[in-house]
Amino acid sequence: MIPFVVFGSLAAVIISYFSYAHKNKVATLNTIEKAVENGTNLTPELLEKMSQSKAAQPPKVKDLRRGVILASIGLAGFVSSFMFSDPEPQEVFRILSMLPFFMGAGFLLVWKLNRYED
Q: CB 3.0 to 4.6 Å from 97: which of 19, 61, 78, 84, for a disulfide?
């Protein structure tokens, strides 16, 4: 029962994230469309401010943020494996937590080694 709850909640978080992002993009596009219909002058600064897109962030910030978040998720999964007294769930949690941990470590390595121009 526990794996269904864990994976179900993970799927719910991912689906809600993409749903919110889609609704945000649609609302931004509708606002821009109404502004164009009314003849409002749209500057690049205004469009960037309205979209608040993550693309506006430099890659250095993205790599650092992704690395810290993924490494933290992996570390949290590893630490939570100690809550089980049975060795089987412990091993499963430890194995599953290594994927985000090493992905986060990879992002942090890229962040450290890459020479960004910003």
A: 78
